[in-house]
Write a structure and sequence with these properties.
The structure holds two protein chains of two kinds.
Chain A: H1 22-26, E1 29-34, E2 37-43, E3 49-51, E4 54-55, H2 57-73, E5 82-91, E6 99-109, E7 113-124, E8 127-140
Antiparallel strand pairs in A: 1-2, 2-6, 3-4, 5-8, 6-7, 7-8
Chain B: H1 11-20, H2 23-28, E1 31-36, E2 39-45, H3 59-75, E3 82-93, E4 101-111, E5 115-126, E6 129-144
Antiparallel strand pairs in B: 1-2, 2-4, 3-6, 4-5, 5-6
């Protein structure tokens, strides 16, 4: 397992984090990447919020999208391109805090379809609270 | 396993009583395998009437069993004089539900004031081997002050 302690350091967890993509635009950082699982985090920024101190739900959805895709791609054979076919979010509480943590785990990696579950936590001070969960299907193109 | 406290010390009796009053669960031969605050597992044995054209358990049945498990996992935490309704469910079929028996396990993930979020999984058992057939997420509503029996007062039995 690769672990990175400092969220502000540029990620070195693989090429997918090194390109100037939407993840970099938001400031999403990879904490760990293992076979079939992935953890991402994002520090709070005023420009990602809609209400004071609360991450916009679109950001929550983007975190889920990035986490499930990254976890699934990590178990896909070389050369196989995976895209999201559907994804459901269940949101229990506003994502209010200093940091968002998305943890995605592959439930089943099939030849055509990959099912991934993900949990989203918000860090406020020293407490970590789950604020949402998601279940997604990715299809090999 | 669920780590939630129930608001009903009588939850075991209340849930089992409600389950026994579900004609559909009785019709398919479903049984409660385990019941804890915030967690419920159900089983059903294979019968030809429950299968589809390939001989697998019908997908709708697999989803129904998991829906009931999730409903009762939520209901086990509810206060007395309340009832449960599914307001949302989403499932992913992972493998064909072949085999002689199905097990559905559901756990509460989050307790709200009216809305409870749950996760659940269904496994089939064939020659002692467990296969993961379904995973799903559920949203259950807690209807306070409404009796669990019978039929929420909406349908007259002899109508």
């Amino acid at each position: 397992m690769t672990t990175k302690e400092n969220a502000n350091e540029p990620s070195n967890l693989g090429a997918i984090f090194d390109v100037p993509n939407f993840m970099h635009h938001l400031g999403v950082d990879a904490v760990s990447l293992e076979a079939g699982s992935c953890e991402l985090r994002l520090n709070f920024q005023e420009n990602l919020s809609v209400t004071k101190g609360v991450f916009h739900t679109g950001v929550v959805a983007a975190m889920f999208d990035m986490a499930v895709t990254t976890a699934a791609k990590n178990v896909a054979p070389d050369g196989v391109k995976l895209v999201i076919a559907e994804q459901k979010l269940n949101i229990f509480a506003p994502a209010k805090g200093n940091q968002l943590i998305a943890v995605a785990t592959v439930v089943k990696a099939g030849r055509t379809l990959t099912v991934v579950e993900a949990n989203l936590y918000v860090i406020k001070g020293s407490t970590r609270t789950q604020c949402a969960l998601s279940l997604a299907t990715l299809i090999a193109e | 396993m669920s780590e939630f406290d129930t608001k009903n010390p009588n939850f075991d009796q209340v849930v089992r009583d409600s389950f026994s009053r579900q004609p559909f669960m009785s019709f398919i031969g479903a049984k409660i395998e385990d019941l804890q605050p915030g967690s419920c597992s159900l089983s059903v044995e294979r019968r030809a009437e429950l299968t589809q054209q390939h001989g697998f358990f019908h997908g709708g049945l697999v989803g129904s069993l998991l829906d009931s498990a999730a409903g009762y996992a939520a209901f086990s935490l509810y206060p007395e004089n309340s009832t449960v309704l599914t307001i949302d469910m989403k499932v992913n079929f992972l493998n064909p539900a072949s085999g002689g028996e199905l097990f559905a396990v559901a756990n509460v993930v989050n307790v709200g004031t009216k809305i409870y979020h749950l996760k659940g999984d269904v496994y089939s058992l064939k020659d002692g081997k467990k296969t993961h057939c379904m995973t799903g997420v559920f949203t259950m509503m807690c209807l306070l002050g409404m009796s669990d029996a019978p039929n929420l007062g909406r349908v007259k039995e002899d109508a």
